[in-house]
Amino acid sequence: MEKIVIALIFGGRSTEHFVSLRSAAAIHTALMALGHRVHCIGIDQKGTWRYHGQPRTCPSEVNCAAPLISLCPGRRSLTYAANGQRAVEVEIDLLFPALHGRWGEDGTLQGLAAMCGIPCVGTGVLGSAVSMDKDMTKRLLKFSGVAVAPWMAMRTMCSWDEVVECLGSTSLFVKPATSGSSIGVSRVSNASEYAQAYAIAAQIDTKVLVEAEILGREVECGVLESASGLLASVLGEIVTKEGQRFYDYQAKYDVAGAVDICVPCQLPQSIVSSIQELSKKAFRCLELTGYARVDFFLKNDGTILLNEVNTLPGFTNTSVVFHKYR
Description:
Helices cover 29% and strands 28% of the residues.
């Protein structure tokens, strides 16, 4: 296999900074095992890009004393200078973002790569921007005939009574429109909890989603683009343990044993095929490229509802995508 010179980018300004570090570690290990040359670029929480060299192991944090990096539009390279020394230019073949959330998963990094003429792993500007906004994702999918969970999007908080009347439920989820990893997500069942949850979500995003809770199973499908077309993975299921209210940040990354990840999950082949086809339909609808993870609810009556689409899914050792493709 031909060696590729890859700039692996991790960290970032978003609330998912630390999740990105975990994803980067797994990606770095895989790229090194394949024999590629990997230059590590860490973005600190202020948004500064720093060069971390070609370590054998991916850094566990962004070194804020590392050399600053600059990119030059029209050149497939990055430039850094250490301790006042002469600038060094490093030619690269590919950017591999291991970033999650805004300023990495939302089309901004993808646009920068396009302006610089550097190929970038994953979805481009349009698909990244649309999929990052859960409200816009649902609108486009619903227009294309893909069933989604009932939702409201708001920039000013509606009253509890309005929300309950619109969504037809008093069991609701409140979340920022453009956040991931369940950061800022709350499950609520009364007006007081709703007001508190809205305030939390509004600190992260100016647009807040409120969704009706769906009773059923949480199923996820990976989609990989290849030269021969789209490949849908086996399905994975998230099974929360007793006492775990929902699949929140702690269950995903901090609390061991909070959930079981069942891959492949046990479902009739007809349902598996339907979810795989819906995953590929969503992938095409949102103009995605490369790879993505598509999340669904399977209701007790067999109804399939698409929950959300992740264009840069987590690659930590607890991530569902990791279990599907390992």
